[in-house]
Amino acid sequence: MRLLGRVIQTFFRYLLSKVSVIIFLIILLGGFFVVSKDLEDFLQTPVNLPEDGIVLEIKPGMTIDDVVGILRSKNIIRNALYFKWYARFTGDASKLKVGEYALLPEMYPLELLSIITSGRVLQYNFTIIEGWNFSQLRQALEKSPHLNQTLKGLSNEEVMAAIGLEGKPYEGYFLPDTYLFPKNYSDAELLKRSYAAMNEVVDKAWATRQPNLPIKNKRELLTLASIVEKETGVASERPEIAGVFVRRLQKGMRLQTDPTVIYGLGDQYRGVIYKSDLQRDTPYNTYTRDGLPPTPIAMPSREAIYAAANPKPGKTLYFVAKGDGSGEHLFSETLDQHNRAVKQYRDRMRGK
After folding, report:
1. Which CATH number applies to 54-118: 3.40.50.300, 3.30.1490.480, 2.60.120.340, 3.50.50.60?
2. According to the UniProt entry, where is the signal peptide (predicted)?
3. 168-190 residue pLDDT tens
4. What is the pTM of this model?
5. Contact 125, 178 (CB under 8 A)
6. Rounded to an integer, what distance in angstroms lies between the CA atom of residue 150 and that of residue 157?
7. Could you tell me the CA-to-CA distances from 96 to 53, 63, 67, 101, 203 in Å, in that order?
């Protein structure tokens, strides 16, 4: 009997141990199910962001713990532990990219994690306006709140040296365009990009230029384009404006264009061109000097450059503003036609 009792007791102990294991497994599986369901709900619920979103900056050396700390302090994520676990499980915790990221409303946790590991950082922009000269460009650069300022106080020549272009010309050599850049981007880096972009455009225009143009090199092409740019804001007129100047150069006529006079006057320009200004000889006064001025007078657009390389054929040698607010010009083949157009313009300005 004692032996049987021991056998029965041992059996029940064994049975209880198995039941305990089963119960433990049931509890464990139940807990795993609950956590999995909660994690799934977390991943499928948008993070808590204001209507206009926020900017999250990941700085050098930051870890996923630092990022989660910021998100939790701003009450952006509901469960910081889940976010951290998931990032480590997928390997994204070690893929954080330095920079600023725009976090937008209705974004899900996985989208947030994808963005901060993608390198798709927030971009700022700076626009170089067609027709600006280098002085205007530098003033605008210094006012840009998002650029890292490294060139303040330098002369124009020192600026060119600072961007690795020592001794290179600067006036007219930066392409008008809108440039995107991340935080901590420098003014020097932006100028390098713009200079390279301008060279690329000029190279293409030069390679596809019309034959027999009275232009000896790319610098002269850029100089002519800068005059075309300053003479009209109407894109469709640029080829014809270029055609007028090309024909004048071919005939040995002076260009007689006011923007070159204004550039030559510099700070002495008084807002209006007087007869004495036209008679004042400077290297840029195309009323007193033959041919093109020594350098560009502004930064021309792509369109102006291609117009200078491929001017519109014709016989016109003169033009004057219509004066009707359109910005367009009247073109003439002869001086008599031009004088009549000038009179028409002056009468319109006087309100006749």
Report:
1. 3.30.1490.480
2. none
3. 999 999 999 999 999 999 999 99
4. 0.82
5. yes
6. 14
7. 20, 8, 9, 11, 40
